[in-house]
């Protein structure tokens, strides 16, 4: 899943991004409200972590503008302020949850995962099934029948993109966009490393290569 952090405290933003990437998320970071609004409108994000006190445009206005445009992405607001009025104002503008600084990183991750689960339960089932393979996007666990298959965070993220569009061809650019962040400028062939690892764990015929187009997850 892909997250956007809009936070002007650069050390905090970098720290949060590093931790969330270790959890298997693709994370983009910006430090300005206007830039955050632009990126949120252009990108397909699963959740936004949004500070309130931002240069350019504050978090309240960013949130209100996204909601006015019909963007229903879950928003977790962060603020150094404290008090019921600030929380009410944040929620009134359309935020889904609220966290006051200083906060525990463990609590932030729990809030992020809870919002993502809530969004999943409101729509499609969090369990993707492809043949005998089941991919639980809420618990991030994978089973082949009754046997659990252990994957790294990045392996799971790649598999999740393929399972979401099982039977369809998913191109490398699409996988890079959702599994790595927009600032990634390394070798796009890194995807082949993860595809090879997934084939070893899931079975060689589980993921087909469509030459010149991408990869397709098939039921076996």
Description:
With 220 residues, the protein is of the alpha/beta class. The protein has eight helices and eleven strands. The chain has helices at 10-22, 33-42, 59-68, 84-92, 105-122, 153-164, 172-179, 190-202; strands at 2-6, 26-30, 47-51, 75-79, 97-100, 127-130, 133-136, 141-144, 147-149, 207-210, 214-217. Helix 2 (33-42) runs parallel beside helix 3 (59-68). The longest helix has 18 residues, at 105-122. The radius of gyration is 18 Å and the shape is elongated. The two termini are 25 Å apart. The mean pLDDT is 84.
Instruction: Determine Rg (CA atoms, Å).
Output: 18 Å
Low-confidence stretches: none
Number of strands: 11
Distance between the termini: 25 Å
Largest sheet: 5 strands, parallel
Helical amount among residues, as a percent range?
A: 40-55%
* Count of alpha/pi helices: 8
Strand order of the largest sheet: 2-1-3-4-5
How would you sum up the global shape? elongated
- Reading the helices and strands in chain order gives EHEHEHEHEHEEEEHHHEE
Q: Could you say which structural class the secondary elements and strand pairing correspond to?
A: alpha/beta
SSE blueprint:
Blueprint: E1 2-6, H1 10-22, E2 26-30, H2 33-42, E3 47-51, H3 59-68, E4 75-79, H4 84-92, E5 97-100, H5 105-122, E6 127-130, E7 133-136, E8 141-144, E9 147-149, H6 153-164, H7 172-179, H8 190-202, E10 207-210, E11 214-217
Parallel strand pairs: 1-2, 1-3, 3-4, 4-5
Antiparallel strand pairs: 6-7, 7-8, 8-9, 10-11
